[in-house]
């Protein structure tokens, strides 16, 4: 955790403090008034919604933050839980990666409670086996969510989500 706490980059949310015990695992990060990408995209669907413009979507900065994480500790550090809820927007609208290292800290918790299946690479079955490639896959899912405006984990209003549709189509092709 000291390694994670020492990472400083404009697109990585700094870990300010953490607490680890048998019953609780807590991590303290900076507060971002703009919130996370997931809340901006899927939270407020009514009046006053603040949609991301293309410039912000493309300049989100999360890729730079993830790339920086991957260079730390001799290239051995992996995020392991990239999703829209873990990308926060700073006051300039650039993405900042959060919850880095939580997968390592929470390795005793069963996998479904840790990572959202819609973002997880299919080859990842154990939280201790996440890789740079699985982070890249999760980032790709995040980019697809930014482009389509649809969540990879659940659809709204009875619609089928894009990931569910893809899995259904693959299953029908194998028959």
TrEMBL record:
> Is the Protein transport keyword given for this protein?
no
- Keyword Oxidoreductase annotated: no
Question: Source organism's superkingdom?
Answer: Eukaryota
* Listed Pfam families: PK_Tyr_Ser-Thr
- Which InterPro entries does the UniProt record give? At_inactive_RLKs, Kinase-like_dom_sf, Prot_kinase_dom, Ser-Thr/Tyr_kinase_cat_dom
Where are the stretches annotated Disordered?
154-175
Q: Name one GO molecular function term.
A: protein kinase activity
Q: Where is the Protein kinase domain?
A: 1-175
Q: Which controlled-vocabulary keywords does the entry list? A: Kinase, Transferase
Record's compositionally biased regions (Basic and acidic residues) = 160-175
| Signal peptide stretch | none
Q: Which PANTHER family match?
A: OS05G0588300 PROTEIN, PROTEIN KINASE DOMAIN-CONTAINING PROTEIN
Protein name in UniProt: Pkinase domain-containing protein
Q: Which organism is it from?
A: Cephalotus follicularis
């Amino acid at each position: 955790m000291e390694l994670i706490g020492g990472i400083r980059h404009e697109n990585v949310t700094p870990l300010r403090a953490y607490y680890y015990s048998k019953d609780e695992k807590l991590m303290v990060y900076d507060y971002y008034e703009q919130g996370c990408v997931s809340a901006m995209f899927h939270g407020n669907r009514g009046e006053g919604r603040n949609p991301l413009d293309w410039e912000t979507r493309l300049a989100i900065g999360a890729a730079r933050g993830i790339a920086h994480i991957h260079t730390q500790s001799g290239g051995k550090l992996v995020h392991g839980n990239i999703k829209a809820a873990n990308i926060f927007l700073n006051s300039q609208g650039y993405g900042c990666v959060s919850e880095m290292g939580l997968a390592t800290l929470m390795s005793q918790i069963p996998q479904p409670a840790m990572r959202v299946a819609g973002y997880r690479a299919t080859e990842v079955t154990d939280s201790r086996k996440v890789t740079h490639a699985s982070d890249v896959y999760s980032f790709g899912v995040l980019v697809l969510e930014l482009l389509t405006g649809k969540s990879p984990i659940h659809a709204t209003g009875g619609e089928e989500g894009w990931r569910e549709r893809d899995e259904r189509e693959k299953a029908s092709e194998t028959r």
